[in-house]
């Protein structure tokens, strides 16, 4: 059983609600984590050394440079393995690649995509999923060892200080909760949020539904994120969305701090202003690879 009741039990203390993604949004750690932690463990765990160049390209495309940026790690793993198996250069090398079918089947039926959920599935008689769990645990270890001292992006702290005056704020993320706690505490910004919700508490859409659903007025709920999945989570809950543009993070936070939040609290955010931001965001990430 997950601890999602902490989200469900959140009682509004302000008129507005804001959910914020963490990796690549508050912290400029997406490139660092994926290039130095996720991808190397991906190559090592699944023995992709003979096609390591293509494995890295596929991993980065899935997680950084396409519309699946910010996806749950297990969904990203399944997509990366599938794309790698289909890539002609990899096929030409005759590399033995794992079939993600069993992982995809678990993703389709699992109530939560987390290490604990995967371990239960393995213990229940699905040992073929063990490599995925070993990879995920290896990623957590690599992140703990390699990612520290990365401060929040410029204008994040100022924005958080502005938010908490009028809004209940939570973190909405697919990172492991232990990572979120460590990173937000390290920079003393955990004081601004009421809950740090990671993958163990469900999907981003579930985080928003449980924490904010039916508790706030129309157009009083905002999701801030850097990935299409953040936008989808917002829209599935009839929430507004503010994009942090990949590659233009500083400018995005400055704009939010100087005008976006004022518009949100004043009731002038929804409509043409938000639509313009979303159109710009949609154009930044492709859907299909160019190989």
Overall description:
α12 links the parallel β4 (221-225) and β5. The protein has 14 helices and five strands. It has a five-stranded parallel β-sheet with strand order 3-2-1-4-5, sandwiched between helices. The chain is α/β, with parallel strands linked by helices. It folds into two domains: 5-29 and 152-282, Rossmann fold, CATH 3.40.50.1000; 30-146. Helices cover 52% and strands 8% of the residues.
Question: Quick recap of the structure?
Answer:
This protein has 291 residues and is an alpha/beta fold. The chain has helices spanning 5-8, 30-45, 52-63, 73-86, 88-92, 101-109, 115-123, 130-146, 156-163, 177-186, 204-212, 228-235, 249-266, 272-282; strands at 16-20, 167-172, 195-197, 221-225, 240-243.
């Amino acid at each position: 059983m997950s601890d999602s009741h902490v989200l469900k039990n959140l009682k509004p203390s302000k008129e507005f609600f804001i959910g914020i993604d963490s990796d690549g949004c508050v912290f400029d750690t997406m490139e660092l984590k994926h290039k130095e932690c996720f991808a190397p463990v991906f190559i090592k765990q699944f023995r992709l050394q003979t096609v390591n160049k293509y494995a890295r390209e596929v991993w980065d495309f899935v997680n950084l440079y396409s519309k699946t940026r910010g996806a749950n790690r297990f969904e990203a793993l399944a997509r990366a393995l599938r794309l790698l198996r289909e890539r002609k250069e990899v096929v030409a090398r005759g590399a033995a690649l794992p079939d993600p079918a069993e992982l995809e089947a678990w993703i389709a039926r699992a109530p939560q995509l987390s290490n604990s959920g995967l371990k239960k599935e393995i213990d229940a008689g699905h040992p073929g999923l063990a490599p995925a769990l070993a990879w995920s645990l290896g990623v957590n270890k690599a992140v703990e060892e390699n990612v520290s001292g990365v401060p929040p992006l410029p204008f994040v702290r100022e924005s958080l200080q502005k938010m908490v005056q009028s809004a209940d704020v939570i973190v909405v993320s697919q990172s492991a909760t232990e990572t979120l706690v460590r990173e937000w505490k390290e920079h003393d910004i955990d004081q601004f949020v009421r809950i740090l919700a990671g993958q163990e508490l469900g999907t981003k859409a579930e985080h928003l539904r449980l924490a904010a659903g039916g508790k706030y007025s129309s157009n009083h709920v905002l999701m801030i994120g850097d990935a299409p999945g953040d936008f989808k989570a917002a829209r599935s809950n009839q929430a507004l969305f503010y994009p942090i543009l990949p590659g233009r993070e500083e400018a995005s936070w400055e704009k939010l701090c100087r005008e976006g939040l004022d518009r949100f609290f004043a009731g002038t955010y929804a409509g043409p202003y938000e639509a313009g931001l979303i159109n710009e965001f949609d154009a930044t990430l492709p859907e299909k690879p160019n190989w």
